Amino acid sequence: QGDAISLDIKNQKLSKVLEDIEQHSDYNFVYKLNDINTDRPISLQVNKQKIERVLKMLFDDSDVNYRIIDTQVFLKRKSSIISEPLTNTTENKNFQTLIKGFIKDESGTPLPGITVMEKGTANGTSTDFDGNYEITVPENAVLVFSGVGFKTQEVPVNSKTSIDIQMMNDVEELESVVVTALGIKKEERALTYAVSEVDGESFTQAKEVNLADALSGKIAGVSVSNLSTGAGGSSRVTIRGNTSLSGDNQPLYVINGMPMDNTTLGGSASTSGGGFNIDHGDGTGGINPDDIETISVLKGATAAALYGSRASNGAIIITTKKGTLNSGIGIEFNSSFTIDSPMDLTDWQYEYGMGNGGEKPINQSEAVTWGRRNWGAPIDGSTFIAFDGLEHPYTAKKDNIKNFYNTGSTFINTIALSGGGETTSYRFSVSDTDNKGVIPNNTFNRRIFSLNMSSKIGEKLDLEGLAQFNTSKAYNKASAGDATGNPNWVNMLANTVDVRWLDPGYDEQGNEIQWNETPYASNPYFVVNRFQNKEDKERYLGQFALTYHLLENLSVKGSVSKDFTDFSFTAILPTGTQYTNNAAGEYHGFDVTVSELNSMLTANYNADLTDNINLGAVAGGNIRKYENKQTSYDGTQFIIPFFYSFTNLETSTAIPNTRRLTTNSLFASLDLSYKNFLYLNATAREDWFSTLTASDGSDSDNNIFYPSVGAGLIFTEVLNLPQWFSYGKLRGSWAQVGGGLPDPYTLNESYTMIPSSGQPLQQVTQVSGQRLLANSNLRPYTSTTFELGLETKMFQNRLGLDVAVYKKTTTDDIVNAQIPVTTGYEYTYFNVGKVENKGIELLLSGKPIKNENFVWEASYNMAYNKNEVIQLAEGINTISVANSVGNWAEIHHEVGEPFGIIKGYSILRDENGEIVFDTSSGLPMKSELKKIGNSVAPWSMGFNNTFRYKNLSLNILVDGKFGNDIFSVLNVYATRFGLSKRTLEGRVDGLSLSGVDMQGNPYSNYIPSTDIRNYYQNSKNYSDQFIYDGSFVKLRQVILSYNIPVEKIKLFKVQAASLSFVARNLLTLYSKTDNFDPESSYTNSNAQGFESFSQPRTRSYGLNLKFNF
Amino acid sequence: CDEGFDEVNTNPDASTSIEAEYMFTKAMYDALNNSTGTVYEFSAGGFVQHFATYLEVPGLGDKYVYTSGAYPYAYFNGAYVDGVNEISKVLNAVEDDPDEVNKYAIALIWQAYIFHRITDLYGMIPYSEATTAYASSNFAPVYDTQQTIYLSMLSNLESAISSFDASKESFNEGDLLYAGDTSKWEKFANSLMLRLAMRLTKVDPTTAQQWAQKAIAGGVIEDETDDAIIDYVGGQVINSNPISFQLRNNNYSASNQGTSNTEGGKYSDTFIGYLKDSDDPRLNSIAAVWVDGVQVTDTDLQQGMPNGLNNRPDNFASLSEPNLSTILSLSSSLMVIGSSEMNLLLAEASIRGWESGDAKSYYDKAIHSSMNTMGRLYGTEASISEEAIEQYIATKPFPTGFDAQMEHIHTQFWVSVFPDEIEVYSNWRRTNYPVLTPVNVTGNLTGGTIPRRLTYPPGEISVNSENYNQAISAQGVDNFTTRIWWDVAE
User: Fold this and answer.
1) How high is the ipTM of this complex?
2) What integer pLDDT is reported at residue A172 of this predicted model?
3) Does pLDDT of A2 surpass 90?
4) Which of A65, A724, A759, B133 is 20 to 30 A away from residue A637, measured at CA?
5) Which is higher by pLDDT, A933 or A7?
6) How far is CA A1003 from CA A762, A917, B481, in A?
7) Are A249 and A225 in contact (CB under 8 A)?
8) How confident is the model at residue A93 (pLDDT cuts 50, 70, 90)?
9) Chain B nearest CA to A990, separation (Å)
10) Residues near A63 by Cβ (< 8 Å), separated by ≥ 6?
């Protein structure tokens, strides 16, 4: 790309021409929708012309004025007088004088296209390409200089023959268009709610394999949990906090106006699972960043009202790139290669080595039993016997992480072809992602093929289609959570053992070599070398839309989209896995197909009711059908060793599970604008949910109606404010969104036959392996948002401020609550939750420095969200959402507390603060279960800077979150095993403990140094000792780009090229966690707040190369 | 706009009605397959020193330490969501139909069987309000005192017995014990009544005597032909002997060959030592050591592992473990309540003067019955010849004096009722026999005494807290040393 423009256009609408220029150059057009006749037919042929030239050809004979500021081109309709034929008036024939002049902007740049009029007449001209004009007027005339984006000036001639003018910016004109719900483009000024748009370009250089992760830090109020589950993993994005106690709380993703499925295949990873507790990835992982034109984030419920319940957490609207009519073939090529290096954040004690009771192991049996214990002798460089039975030096081994993990790499290539003929345009892209993980033998490969076509059939019919085919394969993703089959347990190797001694992890028979007392803590090399897991995904996304223009301002659009994924997963716990039955292995897998079909019909009407009032209306209906068909295959003990087939198992089961749901909707939306400063918006929708329909046909409360209203006032148009205050808007909205139940079949209890080799067996149907109690009294929930916003632009657009405050209350929330097992069930849905989110979002943007060669653009966003759970079920004060390995900590929703608090235990103290001891064990008692932290960060911020100097640009993104806590399972184990520095106390002289016994009598206990393991082992009971402040500030992204001056390269007709150094997750600038990264989440479920042996965070850096032909 | 939604919202893979018999079969399996590893082997089985492990994590039973895992509460969690809930579904499904009185009575008996094992391990538990969430939306079941539970179970057994009507239908093959034979179920109910009655000898001897006499008068399982045995066909996990399955899963397998037992388990030295010292032929039925890749049962090679070890003993590989082809066969059978146990309880009733029969005869019959069922339960390889039985009985004269007789009866109970570890553990707590020497390792939670109960699950603490707190304030601290109602200290 660049500033040279080539066009070959015959009889196309102006709008297409503008789109074409936008796609093939750095320029973007900004205009008011009703101001410019974009349907005007254009024929134009230019070859590598400057924009100024092209604009002149396009608009010189039209009623449109234009102005270029940086890469933005502002268009405005000339006042009507200009378009009239120029006629000299006879009265002023005398004393005519020729005036010449030069017109420039504030920075001294010549301004073409500025209108120069003799006041009170139709006599006028405009400046030429170099900003010069000539006009003949009477010597007492007054000249009026005007141009789009500038303040109009009047200058008396007073017999002068030369008048040079510097035009002053009038920034209120600067307006852009954003994409809102249902793909409707609206002027930003017309919005009555918060929308943030991110240009697709900003995702294409420093790439994340999962697109959603790239949103991190970019938008106020959008929180991205960067999961450390490697390539092909899922993402968790929340907008303005968590609204529902049981919903996934993630926004709805919409591609080109149609919702897509973002299911985490096979369900989210659990917080305490083992073996193959893998993040299988979600829908956003299947989008090619290079295909994206823009991403709009609709934060509030108003914005989402038209998409219904699933958008109650906000919506992320993705618009993909399209081809242009009557253009040649354009080729884009984008290649990036990054290396991902694992970070070792451990800081263990290296004073005492492997061993027990102050002794180092003297034989293999001891070495295995003490494989994870660091209660040995001082590390003195002598020798010891390790688990392998060999003698090794008793020295600190500090590079185990470095030695075990690989440096990963990610190679992403995209090539796209686009173009169009007279009636049809297309864009086709192929993208290949090849990732080698930091876990040995972990790979991820993905190909995305995407075709976007649009066509005009005759005068009144438009056809659009999108077809996307993805295929991805992942091998050997790492498990997280518990120890079994989790290679990341390599972190718990004793500090005098070199990890490479464990390699390859198995003996001659192929059996796992045990390196510690329990086979449940797997040999990490055995896991990476012998465990197998494989994911195979094929996804087809198809969309077709037909628009019929009934009248000039009335059209009907029908669209159908289907998102279909076929996914299979197999996990092999191989022959020789010590913790499996008979060490004969296990087989686990599932095949799942997920399909989402949306059929939508809308009617669009747009008209000027009067000169000042414009009306836009949309009405329509949507049918959503979702189906998830899964068959799970599980079995144990491979009969023929090392032959890993489902047919080769001692016991096996194959269990089908089908989930279907339908939501039907009717909706309408109305937009009214008065002049160009007052905007009103109203929407209404009714949804019917199959999941809330009783299966016995009885009457159930399965539908909900919800409205929204909003208003926006451009107060700078009606108030007389100082000149520097160029633009200001106040907006307010009130909106409701109704929601259904995500799971089908939970209203009525049902019974399932289970596989039996004897008598028939029936049990209560389980939902996703849970004993879920049916509740037939459920009805839809409602989320109500009230929002106020203020947008201002000041100092000639150099400073912008956008502030929003909101209050969002969810009532009748459908809560998936853990209930006591003594009820016979583990979970149920209640219809009683009430959750409130209140928050403020701030965006400060500006250009602190701007001159001819150097520009510094900066934007800072910050958000604070206060969440409170106001009500749960009658008589229920707290519900448990998840628990850590060992149940040491739990995630709860509790009345009066924010969503997702961390509960655990501390050392019990009496009213005087004395530690209360259990005299049976001689150790402190633990308190009752209580709150020890908050899992969700209320504060977040992002600071984005771009520096441009000639052809160089540097982008730096810093982001951070504050105020959450993390319970670290790694540190529990590191303390139990004596790796942690905190375990150094008492190694020499033992520990003297004192306090009171359960009766309150003084109590003391001495723990000799040989027994201190027992003391630290027990500290797992006091979970508050392993809670860390999760706040952080990270240098998220650095991009240094060089725009290769292609004009000088005559080869290959290159139109634009850039080479960039890119880096992601470079540095942690602030963090308070020990031995782990504050972003160590391993599941995208609501259960955030635990760290539990996920794979290490990586620092990625590499090169990105882009070419346009 | 919601046409056809009722069909969309119907699970195509599930039925809408309960088949009482199929649900009952599941409830029978689930009552017995619950936590056979975590509780049988690693808690109760360790407390009574049948099993040992040198590892720490599974070491609750072996050395009274608890590091992590569900060892103290897996049984509690598993019982309610499976067996308890299923049996209440069966009861609800048949209670209103006068033609189903026999099914109702059998289910009521089985419900008592399920509940008594939970309360024996934990003390106070939700009973009257348990699993009423579906029927009456009770999401926080109250904990009943053990006394209430015992009296209720006893009276339910009594009413079940009296409601049997031979002219009405009963369960068929889905009844894994007796295929619906109501006369056998009467004996089973009386046997369970006797078991429950005898449990109360410490806390309330009068009530104990009253119910014991009622049970004996009604007729308990005295002969092997009436033994309540479940046969397992193998195949699916649920159709396999759950004790065999779990112990294989945890420790004992042909691939481990006694050397790399996953949870570091072996038979306890206390158990093997006793069987060996008393020349008990049952030793050869249940125990084996690995020699050159095969399990051998020679008496002189058998040796157990001492409880309370923190490190793997050097001779670990050669220590005794359950015989994979007998007691750990996946298709071996499981004794639910047998004539051996009943005869031992009758012997006790006799020496207490609650029963006129001859204590010595009951005692001998119990031994005879126990040895005779070895083959029935574990296959011919485990069977014991009549001659060997006679020979053993000859060396076990029944002593005089109440205490000595109690010791003999209940030491025999400890051997005969093995591997029903929950029952053996309850019986040991009631009688203190056999006399076991507790271990005292660093970091144990009981001050070096054998635990008296298991602790409640975290889920009850976090989501049934009010009732949980009421229970512990009535019963005592939720730890391993608090005694449950019938286990009064002497």
Assistant:
1) 0.95
2) 43
3) no
4) A759
5) A933
6) 55, 7, 19
7) no
8) very low
9) 14
10) A37, A77, A78, A80, A82, A83
* B11, B81, B310: residue with CB nearest A825: B81
Q: Is the dihedral of CA B60, B64, B65, B70 positive or negative?
A: positive
User: Tell me, what amino acid is at A649?
Assistant: L
Distance, in Å, from the CA atom of B417 to the CA atom of B477, rounded to the nearest integer, reads 30
Give the highest mean pLDDT range of A111-120, A619-628, A910-919, B119-128: B119-128
What SS3 state is found at B60? helix
Q: Quick check: A686 and B1 CB within 8 A?
A: yes
| Beta carbons of B11 and A879 less than 8 Å apart | no
Determine the residue of chain A that is closest to B253 in CA distance. Answer: A582
- Check A761 against B238: CB less than 8 A apart: yes
The 10s digit of each residue's pLDDT in B359-380 is 999 999 999 999 999 999 999 9
Q: Say if residues A454 and A434 touch (Cβ distance below 8 Å).
A: no
Peptide bond into A259 cis (omega under 30): no
Q: pLDDT tens, A291-310?
A: 888 888 888 776 666 788 88
Q: Which residues contact B388 (CB under 8 A, 6 or more apart)?
A: B281, B371
Q: Which of A695, A822, A923, A976 to mutate to test the interface with B (most CBs of B within 10 A)?
A: A822
User: Any idea what the Cα angle at residue A352 is, between residues A349 and A354, rounded to 5°?
Assistant: 105
Q: Tokens 């004794």 belong to which residue?
A: B335
**pLDDT tens-digit profile of A94-137?**
567 888 888 887 767 778 778 888 887 778 887 877 788 888 88
Q: Is the pLDDT of residue B399 over 70?
A: yes
Per-residue tokens: A562: 């289907």
- Asked if B81 lies within 8 A of A753 by C-beta distance, the reply is no
Rounded to 5 degrees, φ, ψ at A270 are: -90, 165
Which residue of chain B comes nearest to A1011, CA vs CA?
A: B442
Q: Would you identify the CATH topology of the domain A181-257+292-324?
A: Ferric Hydroxamate Uptake Protein; Chain A, domain 1 (2.170.130)
Asked if the A258-291+327-342+408-485+531-900+935-964+1030-1103 domain carries CATH number 3.40.50.12780, the reply is: no
- Whether A771 sits inside 8 A of B11 (CB atoms) is no
Taking an 8 Å cut-off on Cβ atoms, the answer to whether A688 and B233 are in contact is no
pLDDT of residue B380: 95
Q: What is the C-alpha to C-alpha distance for residues A390 and A377, in angstroms, rounded to an integer? A: 18
CATH class, range A4-77: alpha beta
Instruction: Name which CATH class applies to B20-219+441-475.
Output: mainly alpha
Angle formed by the axes of helices B101-122 and B146-163, to 10°?
160
